[in-house]
Fold each of these.
Amino acid sequence: MPEIAENRTIFSLLEVSRSIQKTIGERYKSLYWIKAEMNKLNYYSHSGHCFPELVEKTDGRIVAEMRSILWKADYQRINQQFLQLLNEPLKDGITILFRAAISYDPLYGLSLKIVDIDPTFVLGELEREKRESIQRLQEEGLFFRNKRLPFPTVAKRLAIISVETSKGLSDFFKIIHNNPWSYRFEYTLFPALLQGDKSIPSIINQLAVIAGRIEQFDAVAIIRGGGGEVGLSSYNNYQLAKAIAIFPIPVITGIGHSTNETVSELVAHKNAITPSELADFLIQRFHQFAIPVDEAQRRLIQASQALFQQESRLLDHLSQSISWHSKAVLSTHSHLLHTLTGRLQLVSRQRIRDQKNDLNSMVRLLQLADPKQLLKRGFSITRVNGQAISSEANVNIGDEVETILFNGSFRSRITDKNDLHE
């Protein structure tokens, strides 16, 4: 009962709380479908109960907030429905449509007792956001911008946005490192959160870092392990999809799911269902370049070998021709030399004989001209003062002359001389 003091009615806090509890209990007797963002699930493993933190935002600002209760049995049932339909458990950061009772407790205050959550609504919300993002990007002319970029002939230098511990990244590396052709890729890892609301600024920030080093890379790869639709909701975000669409080099994705494509995948230059498929795509691009190069190399080697063989045969033929021709020329010249040698010998013998005859004739002439032969025939040589004289003009009367005969000489004095021409 309230107290009366100084003409004032005073209620205790418990009385006010119970009044509110009674009023709310009488006013909200039914179960209500309510839409809110589950900011945090607040699951307690020791009890199995959840105490979801519910908010409503307008332009990113919280305009309403309320606590709620999800008892263990209801949580297990609802979580199983999410796993079956969405392939993911109930988690933080999703907008839900839930059925709840409104209650007030004097000790714990106002709360919503959740008895059911519609998993199809979550899908609907994802689809709504997806349609709005697609429409906005199309209206701005950005939807196909990244797809229109020329893809490198060989995307060898990769900037990878992922988490180091991601199974999808491990599968990706396993394939590109162990490809049977030993193609080698260069890559730099840019770690980022890959799901939940925080993944949006995380991925966008890493794209900005890569843009500052754009000349070092051929393409950007966003790689994530498997997951359901709820975990992929951030990839329908307009801001993230726009950052991918306007990126200056091709962005390729392998975020690990086989259902509907997210907006980020739709605007990317190439999207693969899984990181493994993305690795296969890059290897195939490498292979498409390598096969013609290998074929050209093979043809070049074959052409070179054929040319060498042809030139070798020609060289052998020329060698044989030269050898045969040389032998023929040598044989001809040898025969000619033999003939000339024979002729030369005949001519030489004849010349020698002729020279010998001429020499003999000259010898005979010389023998005939020998003064001794003349003296022997009765001629003599007359000298005056050691000089032979041939004319009476060379001597004077009174000169002493020497007369040389074949077998001796004598001296006499000129007493008279006659000129035979007088």
Note: Residues 130-288 form a domain with the Rossmann fold fold (CATH 3.40.50.2300).
Amino acid sequence: MHLSSLSRRQFLGAALVTGIGSLATNQSLAGMPPVVRKPRATDGDERFEPDWEERLSITVGPKTGDIVGSTDKALQAAIDYIARKGGGTVQVLPGTFTLRNALHLPSGIRLQGSGPETIITKIASETVALSEDSDWYDQEITLKKAAGFQVGDGIVLVTKNPSTGSQDTIKHTLVARSGNRFKLNDGLRKNLWLSGKPTVSSLFPLLTSEYTKNVLIENLTLDGNRKNNTNLNGNYGGCIFLQDCSNYTIRNVTTRNYNGDGISFQICHDVKVEHCHSHDNADLGVHPGSGSQRPLILNNRLDNNNIGLFWCWGVKYGLAENNQLNGNNYSISIGHNDTDNMMRKNKITNSGKVGILFRNDARGKNFWANRNTVIDNEIINTVANDGVGIDITGKTSDLIITGNKIFERQQPMQRTGIRIGAEAGSVKLSDNQIQGFMKSIDDQRKSQNS
């Protein structure tokens, strides 16, 4: 009898008799697909992979390893070798590696250090003005003086846009040279005219990638050599900078002393940052950037940055949990259309100005950080005399703030536990403990309406 002619009861009976089993039958009844219990390596199938006991790997170290060296060339050679073989592990041995260019990560790679003894840092930056005009279609620049620039260096070009007056920032690599004249790895696509006072700087992220996925970075220390480098905006760099990537895990990594951000990822989805220590960076400790979906920021320490955790534009369905944030100017900042995120069980101490700031990003109709949840956090002490534990500004709405302990253990001064701006929408407060402030709750909506 053909399967199509079997009754539903006959088919279920046949399934049980032939060993398909009750579990598969129950899944079928529930409309669920079968569970993959014995994955095989199948060409093109990246979702399921056997848990292999041994994988392709290569070691690199300053004195020993499959590749010996302490520069970006040695590290990138190991990375590229693994990439050409289809993926695997680059094991970075103990030692200090000093980069003149960023390490570019491909898909399917595991970049693993040997713990705190593996330190990746960078050269001191130099900034030099250009001496000749370069048009948008050019692939070369001319410097007033070559200074310490070398072929292979990562650079950032900055100029005033001749049409809009805004600043253009361009990242490239120097690939050839004649005197002060350098060829770039790609076309400029921006006009570098002397009227815009263009400069070139030896700035770059330490680790970077674009349009890649399924990468693990762990057990490394990344040091940005902050005191010897000029600032690079977190939309272009950081100790780690990712653009248009997905399924990254950054684990047990220290990102420190960068004149910019520690960890920044833009339009990147399903990025997990866990058990990391991002500290003493000039700008942001962890920066889930524009449009990033479902970031997980778990069990990290974010200390002494300008902002510890910065939810950028349109970051949604993220979770920040069990993080310790100490000594940041603003410990957590959330704003421009960052919706449906949860901040839970974080410990925030000694914020310079604000523990958690809901920014007033008044750029459009619904550009505020709506529908976010703040639950079971500890917020203890602010440095500023007028510091605020949780500050809700603009037209931010539909917040749930519950079960938090917001304590000021110094003198109350002009400090406030929770401040709700006059234009704010619905804010549900419940079961919060607030102690030691001049004002526990300053709801300016009430005073506005009274």
Note: Residues 1-38 form one domain.
